[in-house]
Specification:
Number of strands: 5
Strand content: 5-15%
CATH class of the domain at 26-64 and 73-128 and 136-141: Mainly Alpha
Structural class: alpha+beta
CATH topology of the domain at 26-64 and 73-128 and 136-141: Cytochrome Bc1 Complex, Chain D, domain 2
């Protein structure tokens, strides 16, 4: 083989290797940016991806093998269903369900609600089908309860924003909760 052919083959191999290396780490958030759930996906990627896996947020922090995992590897939400949304909010506020490893209130306020809606909507979509068990996509996403104070009369109304799997987690109409029209006793 002549020297120019060797140089050409070597250059081609290096170019192919560089292209392959450039493709690594290019996983992106898989939720459309105009979607109200995109902000939750972005926050999950920033704050939760070190310990949790959820492909829709380009997060790969869970151990791929439970036996080789570390104590801080969180659940793989690709296969673990997290519904209803209030369950996710509880975990965010309390440092998971054990309260041992996950930081409490890693996101708060509207950011916590955005992450909770995102996780409740997208978690469990790759869960294996188990005979007799209800699939995650068949379970309701749930509601987030928020309190609003009225400036006239001091009454507090509680509304529930409904989220259903058929809507892709997009908030539905808000309806007053039971007893929302009652005034507080002074």
């Amino acid at each position: 083989m002549t020297a120019p052919v060797k140089v050409l083959i070597t250059a081609g191999a290096l170019l192919a290797l560089a292209a392959l290396a450039a493709a690594c780490g290019t996983q992106r958030i898989n939720v459309a940016s105009p979607s109200p759930l995109h902000e939750g996906a972005a926050l999950f990627n920033q704050r939760c991806s070190g310990c949790h896996t959820l492909s829709y947020a380009a997060a790969n922090g869970s151990a791929s093998n439970v036996r080789s995992g570390q104590f801080n590897n969180g659940p793989n939400f690709n296969v673990r269903c997290e519904r209803p949304v209030d369950r996710v909010l509880y975990a965010i506020a309390n440092g998971g369900f054990s309260g041992q490893i996950m930081p409490q209130n890693i996101v708060v306020g509207q950011q916590a609600a955005d992450v909770a809606k995102f996780v409740a909507t997208y978690a469990g979509r790759q869960a294996p089908k188990v005979p007799g068990a209800i699939q995650c996509d068949q379970q309701p996403v749930g509601t987030i309860t928020t309190s609003q104070s009225s400036s006239s009369g001091g009454a507090t109304a509680t509304t529930r924003t409904a989220l259903t799997p058929g809507q892709g987690g997009i908030p539905g109409a808000t309806t007053p909760a039971i007893g929302a029209n009652k005034k507080k006793k002074k």
